[in-house]
Write a structure and sequence with these properties.
Radius of gyration: 24 Å
Shape: globular
Strand content: 15-25%
Number of strands: 23
Distance between the termini: 70 Å
């Protein structure tokens, strides 16, 4: 696109100040800035800003929040019959090739003391496997389980994995997968794509410059996955996640965040539940650990399903209990674990302009338009705009919620080692405790103090361990295949 055309577009949108330093730029800088401006939908940026400002004002007088109505949330806890039925239905869909997995993996392990993508992190297991490897091996095992239980030929079941990175993590993530031979999965069934960015804006909605030749940008939040599924996979690869899902015949998508070591990737129980409910979109939740836990909850805002942040719930509401069950009224803790139909993901574009991005007021280094000098502010001078993955919930016609056991499915990795909560040590502890339960449920005994790590390729969720019945394990260790368990007796 010609520079004059780009300039006219930005002038019409009220952002011609991005050309302030054009006459002083080298040719390479001009090309770089032109390419960045051409790829930016400036009218969309203006729409997002106006909607976000209006929404921020409306937030001063929010709609009343209410707990989930009776019957809106079902549970697998203490309901083995329903769990078995849903699992069967989910496995059948997996066996038919109708299920894909979408991983939100754009974050870096900064809080963990690592600059690498968070999925590369080793939580200190005996195997020293990364989060990425654990999730890959769960997919591999689930494919085998679906083949076995649904009478499919070996190697015929595929669960494609769509890995959403960010600009700073994409290259390192792809290199990590390649270095580890894609953890035994076929590379053609792993699709990398990139979370989008939006320009940083002044309080007046004007684009901020990072340098004289570059717009300041920031990630558009984990809710950016919806727009990202429509974007070309790369400059040389014009297909999209949505087109790939369609080409493969995938009807259902399980989406989750990378930092949960207990995540059941493509969980057949969750999938089967959602399919049986004919849900367009759904959330998996766990009971809150306490009234004061700092976690958003799935609830109702007005007449619509929504995630209500803990800061929006009063102390009285947080402590309110159901008179019949004794459970907290606002109990459905959101764990960023979601189900979508592919058709629903395609439909998000039709109501995207109604989604209100959230404003984060930040200190943003920028260029003084008068002097060309870099300004490093001491207080917030601009805003970053983010969409959250759950912001689509209020627009969902058929929404479902499934409660699962926290100790089986949720142990987030958020904090630095030694913090004592949601850190590498608690992740390690929770995963090894789960493996102990797998063995004990299968009829084995595990002596106190013994830690046994089971490769996901041995068991996805405790299945396939019948042979340990009556055995007593006295030695700690890591098991890559079932036969190795006998060495730990």
């Amino acid at each position: 696109m010609a520079v004059d055309t780009i300039r006219d577009r930005y002038q019409a949108a009220g952002h011609d100040h991005v050309f302030t330093f054009w006459s002083t730029l080298e040719e390479s800088e001009r090309k770089s800035l032109s390419r960045q401006l051409e790829n930016l939908d400036i009218n969309r940026v203006n729409r997002i800003y106006k909607k976000a400002i209006a929404s921020e004002k409306e937030a001063a007088d929010p709609e009343p929040i209410e707990p989930l109505p009776v019957g809106a949330c079902e549970s697998v806890v203490n309901d083995p019959a329903s769990e078995k039925r849903w699992r069967s239905e989910g496995l059948q869909a997996i066996a038919r090739g109708e299920v894909g997995v979408l991983l939100m993996a754009g974050g870096q392990g900064t809080r963990l003391g690592s600059s690498a993508p968070k999925g590369c992190y080793d939580i200190g297991l005996p195997s020293h496997k990364s989060l990425f490897q654990y999730q890959a091996e769960r997919i591999a095992r689930l494919q085998v389980v679906a083949e076995t239980e649904c009478n499919k030929p070996a190697g015929s079941v595929v669960v494609p994995w769509y890995v959403m990175t960010s600009g700073p993590t994409r290259r390192e993530t792809e290199a990590f997968f390649a270095k580890n031979n894609f953890f035994g999965l076929s590379s053609k069934n792993i699709v990398f794509f990139e979370q989008g960015t939006l320009p940083c804006l002044t309080a007046e909605g004007k684009i901020m410059l990072e340098s004289t030749s570059r717009v300041a940008v920031a990630p558009d939040g984990n809710g950016g996955l919806y727009a990202a599924t429509r974007a070309p996979l790369s400059e040389s690869h014009k297909s999209t996640v949505l087109s790939d899902l369609t080409d493969r015949g995938v009807l259902y998508v399980h989406a989750y965040c990378v930092d949960n070591c207990l995540v059941k990737v493509a969980d057949p129980v969750f999938l089967g539940y959602c399919i049986s409910k004919q849900a367009d979109c759904a959330a998996k939740v766990v009971p809150k650990a306490s009234p004061s836990e700092s976690v958003g909850v799935v609830a109702r805002r007005g007449e619509k399903f929504s995630v209500v942040e803990y800061s929006e719930i009063s102390k009285e509401q947080a402590e309110l209990r159901n008179s019949k069950t004794g459970e907290l009224a606002f109990n459905a803790a959101n764990i960023a674990n979601h189900f979508y139909t592919t058709s629903y993901l395609k439909s998000v574009e039709s109501f995207e302009d109604d989604l209100a991005f959230h404003i984060a007021h930040k200190k943003i280094p920028t260029i003084d338009l008068k002097t060309g000098e870099v300004v490093k502010p001491s207080k917030p001078n601009g805003m970053k705009l983010e969409l959250f993955v759950f912001d689509v919930f209020p627009f969902t016609k058929r929404f479902a919620v499934l409660e699962v056991a926290r100790n089986e499915e949720f142990s987030p990795l958020k904090n630095a080692p030694g913090t004592g909560a949601d850190d590498p040590e608690t992740s390690r502890r929770d995963l090894l405790a789960q493996h102990k339960r797998f063995l004990e449920r299968a009829g084995a005994q595990v002596k106190d103090g013994v830690e046994i790590e089971l490769s996901p390729r041995v068991s996805y969720a405790g299945e396939g361990l019948e042979f340990v019945k009556g055995k007593t394990f006295t030695r700690s260790g890591y098991v890559e295949n079932p036969e190795e368990l006998d060495t730990l007796l």
